[in-house]
Specification:
This protein is mainly beta. The protein has two helices and twelve strands.
Length: about 160
């Protein structure tokens, strides 16, 4: 679903470009959770939003089955089981996400790769679940991520 040209976005979030060697580019956005800043890699090819296990708080709500896990896959083809939590209080600009199922994953390898390129680490991956739901649009000219009113109610909360 495309946003109508005259429709105003619910939120506009600045994009931070990460230049990758030698020719690549990662796009990241900062989110807030209380006073904490969470930096998310934008990845429309990722089916689920994922967060570093170290960012999961004890008060994050586990779905009805606290042992629930999903399989995650990376670009390198590796697969791993990831615990699923319902995180609350994440804000992308003016957009406050309701309770949202987010997979927890060990980001130590990602942190090492970013550190070797002198880039700040990311806290998670903003996946297709959130991007699709809010009909997100990347404005490459302005380096901003725009979120629009969804056509359906949020999946939780």
């Amino acid at each position: 679903m495309e946003a109508v040209a005259h429709e105003c976005p619910l939120a506009i979030v600045p994009i931070i470009p990460y230049r990758m060697e030698p020719h690549g580019m990662h796009l990241v956005v900062d989110a807030r959770r209380g006073r904490q800043i969470l930096r998310f890699l934008i990845d429309s090819g990722a089916s689920n939003t994922v967060v570093d296990l170290r960012k999961i708080r004890p008060d994050d709500v586990h779905p009805h089955d606290s042992a629930l896990q999903i399989q995650t896959a990376g670009a390198n083809g590796g697969r791993q089981n990831a615990p699923l939590v319902r995180m609350k209080g994440i804000k992308l600009g003016n957009l406050a996400l309701p309770l949202w199922d987010i997979a927890g994953m060990d980001f130590s390898g990602i942190h090492s790769a970013y550190k070797s390129l002198s880039l700040k680490p990311v806290s998670g991956i903003l996946g297709g679940d959130v991007l699709y739901h809010y009909r997100a649009r990347i404005d490459y000219g302005r380096l901003q991520l725009e979120f629009f009113q969804p056509h359906v109610a949020p999946p939780f909360g």
